[in-house]
## 1
Amino acid sequence: MRIGTWNVNGIRARADQFLEWMTTQSPDVACIQETKASSEQVPDHVKNIDGYWSYWHEAQKGYSGVALFLSKSAFPEAPTFVHPAIDMEARIVEAVSGNLRIASVYMPNGGKDYDAKIAFYRAVLAHIEERIAAGDRWIIAGDMNIALTDKDVHPSQLKVDVIGQRPEERQLLQSMIDLGLVDVARQVHPDDDRFFTWWPYWRDARKRNIGWRIDAIYASQTLNWNCTSCDILREFGSSDHAPLMAELG
């Protein structure tokens, strides 16, 4: 199964890039974040792509927003798209196919409301744990807005107590992984300290690869899938995030 996740940072500005990505990469699962658009603002040919089940959880007043695409070849029966009760600001959408639950998530940055970020993370953890207890297995992909370890931040960007690197945040993300998930990128690239998915819009940061790893794909260990590859399409698109692609088989 080919899984991709991408924070597009505005689908209207990057609709053509999104369609190119879907066409060239042909993901079985595509998780999209920060669409910044209502349903009416997204053209039909972008919302509805041949060969995919899709759902757009539209942004509120041009803020946030997520989407989820599942290929009909990998999922012949239509999945059920749901929003857990914990959802806020259109940050999470899930597709349920049997006992597999796939989520596209856009975690809060926390810069404007750090307490809300922590509260949302705790709610997501409780939700994941509850569904695991009910027998569900997970694929979770998206923008986590936390660099899990110092290895996930360029040395020049390491700062004491900066949001996104705080011990409290990192422990929450680690606690989510500890529920029985595999951090796919680290399974394939355990020691790569330049495996970044986001770069600030300044001083050629992306070109110089001065970034953070904050986009991720997690899968339940109980799926018993081997990850054969996990790659960042670093040169693709004009978002401040690059698409992350993984092969699970």
Note: The longest helix spans residues 114-133.
## 2
Amino acid sequence: MKWRGRRKQAGIRHQLSRMTRVAHWAVRIGLILLLVDLFYLMLTWPDWKSFATGPIPKSNLIREYELKRAEDKGLPPLRWRPVALSSVPKYLIRAVILAEDARFYEHSGFDLIAFKEAMNYNLAEGRLALGASTISQQTVKNLFLSPSRNPLRKWHELVLTWGMERNLKKRRILELYLNIAQFGPGIYGIQAAAQAYFGTTAEALTPDQAARLAATLPAPERHNPATRTNHFERRAQKILNRLLRYPGDAADAINRELDPIRPDNGFENGNGV
């Protein structure tokens, strides 16, 4: 019996020793891969000065769409016309922030509160129903990365978001996002979206149209002003209702739409975003 006990203990020690060696090698390999990836990021690190001002660059997702359409002519043509943020109604900017990243001006690229709320909701639902990507993260993903969901892509997104938040102003990040976000099949940016769905410019969008474009962002190919699904209509109305809770240009513009007797057709300056 003693011999069997010693043999069992020796077996356990051998197994623990083997597991320890495997863990050590796993840590070493992980560190090597991390160093290799960090070296890759250093080589491909964006020149943030070139993104801080000047023309809006074509995003990686837009280039990918062009390649897809070159192979499949049945896809809708690319629509993309960048526009300066200064010509975008403030209530459109506010609608997008309310819909996509309510704490945009409070965080440094990552909204931990939204992440916790999304995870709690997903656990309650038993499925991945909500994400918690900020506008900054979405801008990085659209500009530089692919839409894949693998861990390496997410890691790159986090690192690049950290870099962008430290080199670009919030206003510029918004300008980039609004001009490269997808609003439908082949439709990128608010100017192209305004023309495609409403036959107008981004500058001339009404608050209701702004809410509809903001409602398009989570799933632009399925829920948009053309498909007008029940989910889309509920979301658009919810965003419009939230816009009306804030004083400023959105409420003023809607009042003018509902009251044609008022002689002043311009928009008053609100509190801004």
Note: The beta strands are 79-80, 182-184, 187-188.
